[in-house]
Amino acid sequence: MKKNKLVNLFILIFFLILPTKLNAEIIILSSCNNNHDGFLKNEYILDLNNFLMTRNYVYNNETYKKYRLTDLSVKKQNKIERLIYKEKNKILTEKLGYPQFYTQLVFQLDSPIIEIKTVINNEEGMDILSTCKKIQRFEKES
């Protein structure tokens, strides 16, 4: 009789926990052309569940040599992670820089265009940084 109660309790707890599903949304923008530099690989992964943007890129030889001339720490292949947040239909990276001068990347939902926002002394400017050829959207339930 005690085993039955224990099994029933276990089943009840299992079914109470089971319905709590977690949804994770990931957007991958790949094959991105940059307006200023050349890349062999340039992709952005937006993890909306963890509020994280990961950029994976590999410079082409010409761009790598250009940046390597002035900065020996430049690597041909790199990965950058930035915190992101959602504002209406836009996804923005954290602000980089000082309060008077900062930049951040701006992604429109379902748009292949990545913009860079620059603010200097409260004067805002927007410029297209990259245009991506492929957008993939994944929703994962766990």
Explain the overall architecture.
This protein is about 20% helix and about 60% strand. The protein has about 140 residues and is α+β, with helices and mostly antiparallel strands. The protein has one domain (about 25-140): Porin (Beta Barrel), CATH 2.40.160. Strand 8 (about 115-120) and strand 9 (about 125-140) form a beta hairpin. About 10% of the residues are buried.
Give the topology string: H per helix, E per strand.
HEEEHEEEEEE
Continuous helix count: 2
Distance between the termini: 35 Å
CATH topology type: Porin
Largest sheet: 8 strands, antiparallel, barrel
Low confidence ranges? 6-22
Number of strands: 9
Structural shape: globular
Strand order of the largest sheet: 1-2-3-4-5-7-8-9
CATH architecture call: Beta Barrel
Mean pLDDT, to the nearest integer, reads 86
Instruction: Tell me the number of structural domains.
Output: 1
Give the CATH class: Mainly Beta
Rg from C-alpha positions? 22 Å
What are the main properties of this structure?
18% helix, 9 strands, eight-stranded antiparallel barrel, alpha+beta, Porin, 142 residues
